[in-house]
Design brief:
Rossmann fold; 4-stranded parallel beta sheet; 8 strands; 14% strand
Length: 347
């Protein structure tokens, strides 16, 4: 029996500073996330980030928290239930979070207890990054290595250009763009430090070496998060019939003083307002479930910034969440990459 392990990034257990501090400590101590010398990481976290950021982040979480809890967890749970129904007897499905609860190890144990003999790890990140996808796979393999008998394992590759995924995201925004009379579309992806992008460059000389380095996917940048993000945006834009000057691609959530991939969302927004754009629709296609980065950073903070710059409206296109089209697309990805003839990998 196939056991499908859905993995999203994670969320604090409560919108309070203590819970956020515990979450950030687990998240940011991951060497794949802050990929610097351990001593430098310790100093950065213990002297700069953890004494101050949890309280600020808790305030942000409080703005989006619901009576049922964290939006990310709620939407991920709904996806888990609907995917389980869609796959039926084909597979057992369990949700895990890379950081926080439910843990990867506990969710694997639940799959095995239900009779899973094969495990399919499905990181819910459309574009590959070492900080998210790589870290999730490493943590999953580590959990499997603790078992007395390691089952057969396969994994979901980056699905940034999967047609059904792109179709689902395009349909999420099509009516909203028309209803809001948007005069420009923004594709805002989560950012990464430039050094992490360069590490993924198999040639060592392609990524970030020119303004057009992400215009297409080739051998040198096939694992590049930025290039995959551009490909996702192009795929959605094509489905919506957007002209090249009708949309902008940018990156949000940068942290610290180290260079992060550009253009930056909080820089692009006032530039669009200055260029006369009045009504923005914003996709966040790095996230398949609405979360702090979409609901607070974009729908609240970015909206206020745009309105403060003279814009009339900025509207977030809801993420895929547990939309039926996304459930169908994900079920298709599971069948494609975890079928009975799918490959196995040792861990």
């Amino acid at each position: 029996m196939l056991g499908v392990l859905l993995v999203n990034l994670g969320t604090p257990q409560a919108p309070h500073a203590s819970a956020v501090r515990s979450y950030l400590r687990e998240f940011l101590y991951d060497p794949e996330v802050i990929d610097v010398h351990p001593v430098a990481r310790w100093f950065l976290l213990e002297a700069v980030i953890l004494p101050f950021r949890p309280a600020k982040s808790a305030e942000a979480y409080q703005k989006i928290w619901t009576e049922a809890g964290s939006p990310l967890l709620i939407e991920s749970r709904s996806l888990e239930v609907k995917l389980r129904e869609s796959l039926g007897s084909e597979a057992i499905v369990e949700l895990a979070m890379r950081y926080g609860e439910p843990s990867i190890r506990a969710s694997i144990a639940r799959l095995l207890a239900q009779g899973a003999s094969r495990i399919f790890i499905a990181p819910l990140y459309p574009q590959y990054s070492a900080a998210a996808t790589g870290s999730t796979l490493k943590a999953s393999f580590a959990a499997l290595n603790h078992l007395p008998v390691v089952p057969s394992v396969s994994t979901l590759p980056a699905f940034y250009d999967d047609p059904a995924f792109l179709d689902a995201f395009a349909e999420r925004g099509r009516k909203l763009i028309a209803d809001e009379r948007a005069d420009h579309v923004l594709f805002s992806f989560h950012g990464l430090p430039e050094r992490q992008i360069r590490k993924a460059d198999s040639s060592g000389r392609h990524c970030l070496a020119s303004s057009g380095c992400c215009d297409s996917i080739g051998p040198a940048n096939r694992d590049c998060y930025r290039a995959q993000s551009f490909a996702t945006a192009r795929g959605i834009a094509q489905r919506l019939g957007l002209a090249e000057d009708g949309y902008t691609i940018c990156f949000q959530s940068r942290l610290g003083r180290t260079p992060w991939i550009a253009p930056h969302t909080d820089v692009v927004i006032p530039e669009l307002a200055a260029a006369g754009k009045k009504r923005l629709a914003v996709f966040c296609p790095a996230f398949v479930a609405d979360c702090l980065e979409t609901l607070e950073e974009i729908s609240l903070r970015a909206r206020d910034q745009f309105l403060g710059c003279g814009g009339e409206s900025l509207t977030l296109v809801p993420s895929l969440n547990a939309d039926d089209a996304w459930v169908s697309a994900l079920a298709g990805l599971v069948r494609k990459h975890a079928g009975a003839t799918g490959y196995s990998r040792s861990v």
